[in-house]
## 1
Amino acid sequence: MTKNYSMLILPGDGIGPEVMDEVKRVIEWLGENRGLNFDISEDHVGGKAYDVYGKPLSDEALAKAKEVDAVMFGAVGGPKWAGVDYDKRPEAGLLTLRKELNLFANLRPAMCFEPLVDASSLKPELVSGLDIMILRELTGGVYFGEPRGIEDLSNGQRRGVNTQVYETYEIHRIAHVAFDLAAKRNGLVTSVEKSNVMESGLLWREEVEIIAKDYPDIKLEHMLADNCGMQLVRTPKQFDVIVTDNLFGDMLSDVAAMLTGSLGMLPSASLGEVGKGALYEPVHGSAPDIAGQGKANPIATILSFAMALRYSYDCADEAKLIEDAVNDVLADDVRTADIHQDGKMLVSTTEMGDHILNALTKLNS
Ligand code: IPM
Ligand code: MG
């Protein structure tokens, strides 16, 4: 009997729907060629949901997200909603999903595909073979800390407040994920904070050290976040797993993404307690400047779907197949605009999808 996998698709704003269309074609291909059947539901999120429902995530969509094996998420945001209150902004839809599904572990692999070595802003020898995992804490820190807000002061000034806060259990559970990942990789964890100026950073460092005692075979290093940014663009291959808080993880994962040639290449997985909810999304945003023009690179979203196959659906073979297909297409010099270089073939979003489907068929025969 074939198993049905449940999935909620939330394409969102900007280029989200375009790149998600290519994932839908990959899903169809898997049904026809590998017998994998998905029960798919779809809803709006972000600005689109705000326009339709008056809020960036409907109660129905949230309930559905909690029920399915995995959520595939496109992107949210755009200038159209810049004046909307924070709690109704497109981004709030994503933050609500992360918090409500308790998706505390955000895996952002930064891998350099060999055919793209020249597309990086760094010298080829610095990025060739690059394979690092940024593990970002996703449900705590300054993104969610209280108090927060903007207040009017009596002297006519205004005061903006956000609070960086971490509790022991939050640090412990993300540290466990980091050490478990490193055990399956190259055995090195770099824990990143600003313990030189922040108490929450010092707590982070001390609590990670406590968990490290359970993993005698894994090497633990500490690094200050500013130095980590510098080291990432100096000698990125020194890293294996980088574990860090919500805000530093947001920044450092964008830096790491660019090492691989383009933000359009990087997938991510957001996971909670095992078997209780998961969300997969490209690291890039909604890119409103190129939305609707067929220029977007669908690879990050397709690779996010491959991560879903691996972590939520136990289909590692199909995940590998998709990653290999992407590599083959890149090796054939097929490029969307973000990774295009002289002499390579410039293709649209759907054409990139066509090439990936063809490569899948070739690999599968
Ligand atoms: C990311 C994005 C989000 C974040 C935004 C869209 C809220 O930048 O996933 O990296 O800041 O976490
Ligand atoms: Mg970001």
Note: The radius of gyration is 20 Å.
## 2
Amino acid sequence: MKLYLDTANVEEIRELSWLIDGVTTNPSLVAREKRPFHDVLREICAIVRGPVSAEAVALDREGMVREARELAKVAANVVVKIPLTVAGLQAVQVLSREEVRTNVTLVFSANQALLAAKCGATYVSPFVGRIDDAGGDGMALVEEILNVYGQYDFGTEVIVASVRHPGHVLQAALLGAHIATVPYGVLKKLFGHPLTDAGIAQFLKDWQRVPQS
Ligand code: G3P
């Protein structure tokens, strides 16, 4: 499973650039940086070789297509995030013919994911954390989407998004999701285990008793 970092923070991306396969941003994450969007995007795309998702904010088809073409010019690894609306999917159809890669976002049902794939989306992003927050089962949706996609040959990849904790990452991997996009804090938690720390401390303590030559 590929791991993306879900952030627009350049320091976080730089620190984990040796590990991650890509980056996803959204307007809320970009707003936290208090910098012009294209400057941030250009900098991220120079650090990361893999796909970098940048969201279009227009709501009409023509506006989204126009914005997507501009975003795609920023760097070769830009993927344009498009919300799952009728206009959004129409834009995805146009962009797919132009070979502009798209990440259809705000996906909350398997039928939405089916439509996105039929329109030529490169990626779909089901928001598992927001479904869990609303009392649903986000990972059950991921399983459904993977089952639907497994019946056909769409080529659309599933990005498990709105990840809240390491359990979401493990479940995504167990289900065989193509990608999980993970916030910085959650990704850092994946490294740790108390028994690893205790093991290192014990080995170092025992090493003191080894005679030095
Ligand atoms: O980038 C999209 C998604 O990961 C947002 O997550 O935490 O705002 O639900 P969240």
Note: The chain is about 50% helix and 15% strand.
